[in-house]
Amino acid sequence: MKAKFWVSGALALAVLSCAVCFGPSAQCQAPNAVPSNCDRACLVDVMHAYLSGFVGHDASRVPWAEHVEFTENNALMTIGDGTWAVVSGKEDNDLIVADPVTGQVGYFGTVELNGLPCWYAVRLKVADKTVAEVETVWRPRPPVVNAAAPGGGDPKDLKHDPAMYESLAPAERVPRRKMIDLANGYFATLQLNDGRLFTDFDPSCSRIDNGTKTANNADSPNPASSCACASWPAATGGSATPTPCPPRPTPARCASPSSRKPPTFTKRSPTNSTMLRRMPR
Question: Is 279 part of any domain?
Fold first, then answer.
């Protein structure tokens, strides 16, 4: 993404993170990890096949591995249960990201479950061109739609920034290790919520949290939403209402790389072995 850096809330970032490091099979592999036998086009095709089978209630359209792990909102399930049983449609707002190095592909968009629009994200682990893992996270439209309230937007209004679909020239690309650090540092910043930043934000960064633009949004009635992503508490979704915006905090990782404490990995949930989060010590 050239000038803009959009963050579509924790739901989208969780899926986008899968493109660089997500799941036990990835474990933040080294940049020189051996690529899988399924390239980017192959992974995207597998995702399209999955979405077709999912929306069409036809699991036979999906190239399944012999053993498949399927989780939905952190609960282990059987293919055909959960959202598979109640999906009733899908909006044409697909955002698909693929990582041939780890053999994973992610999707973020809008689906209807029993006619109710929902934010929907899925990560697939592809092995030998077959689906071995499915990790789904979804959230329904709130009972009362209020785009000015955090999480109060309508999933049908979800539109991805055009920059998310652009291909960067090799000289413009961020190193793989740096992308992993940015994504994990974002979640560390959210979880600690202590005023320190463990990631870097572009000045033009905009954050969309469950349909609500919560950073760099001059039109929002919430003053916190007009702050930059790097301003606190805007970086944590505007948990307070500063007026005017607070000064940009000093990044917690401003020391040289050799002096930074290495992060550790901890399981997010005992019911979902596929989700990992990197935490600072």
Answer: no
